[in-house]
Amino acid sequence: MVAIKASGVDAFLARPPAEVCAVLIYGPDAGLVAERAERLAARALEGSDDPFALVRLEGDDVASDPGRLADEARTIALFGGKRLIRVKVGGRALNLALEGLLGGPQPDALTLLEAGDLKKTNPLRTLCEKSPRAAALPCYPDEAGARERLIDEELRAAGLGIAPEARALLSASLGPDRLAARGEVRKLCLYAMGQSRIEADDVAAVIPEAGDVGQDAAVDAAFAGRAGDLVAALKTLRANGTPPSVVVGAALRHALTLHRLRADVEAGRGARQVMEANGFLFHFRRKDAAEKALGAWTGERLEQTIVRLGDAVAAGRRTAGLGEAVAERVLLGLAIEAARRPR
């Protein structure tokens, strides 16, 4: 069948075509590969109580004996009913084995192949995409909206609501691996058991990255000129015990990094080109914001900002109470300036 796009995978899993006897699930998101494989396996064996209905094979073993896959798939179940062959794709090619399966009579079992990231030209992927009796399902880090759906699914199952600030913090705190992200949300739901809804304090208490992500969100909002988002982020951080002075320190480090990279931009390189060469300096969620700031802020403006942020850090060290007010004022000033300056 035709190659299935990432947006069409859920629809395929909900109703796999009857003529498909082999499904390849692949991609860089190992957690999503595992989650979708489990979902398809549960559907394939739904209603079966045969302990021998599931057969697990290692891909390299199958590659050593290509005929084994077709033999297993066409073996009739001892007690009748559905069967599933799960194959963990290894380093050796499985084309011969899969060609033998797809080229013969319709098998009695569904074959499920689980693999890592495969290039478009990979022979196994190409075979599954072109055969009318196979399908290839890509698993990439959560597309837009998928993270929110995951959160909604787990909250609904736990019977919990969530405050808007808590949702924003939770969504920003989850990593790219789907399975790990689901585990974090389930852990949060367990922590909040007995409450009517999850608050930002709950997220900060359970999700390890929440505090750091909140700081990053505040810093990025300041450099992008989004004063409203900055105020909301500072409010959440303060409620979780993170004062504005800590955010100023993060903003100073960010400004120093941007200033160093800005020299390359002003030497004639594009902001995207500079980011592609230095993207490792930023968390993957911040790369777009960092690229925009790199293109908008001149070296001179960054130098002035570094001095102002450094003065605010020094004020915080001299007088804690006064320093917090200075920190908040300098961050808001930064956001207002960014909004007014041409981009």
Automatic annotation (TrEMBL):
GO terms for biological process: DNA-templated DNA replication. InterPro entries: DNA_pol3_clamp-load_cplx_C, DNA_polIII_delta, P-loop_NTPase. Its EC number is 2.7.7.7. Keywords: DNA replication, DNA-directed DNA polymerase, Nucleotidyltransferase, Transferase. GO terms for cellular component: DNA polymerase III complex. One of its GO terms (molecular function) is DNA binding. The keyword Transferase applies. Belongs to the DNA polymerase HolA subunit family. This is DNA-directed DNA polymerase. The lineage of its organism: Bacteria, Pseudomonadati, Pseudomonadota, Alphaproteobacteria, Hyphomicrobiales.
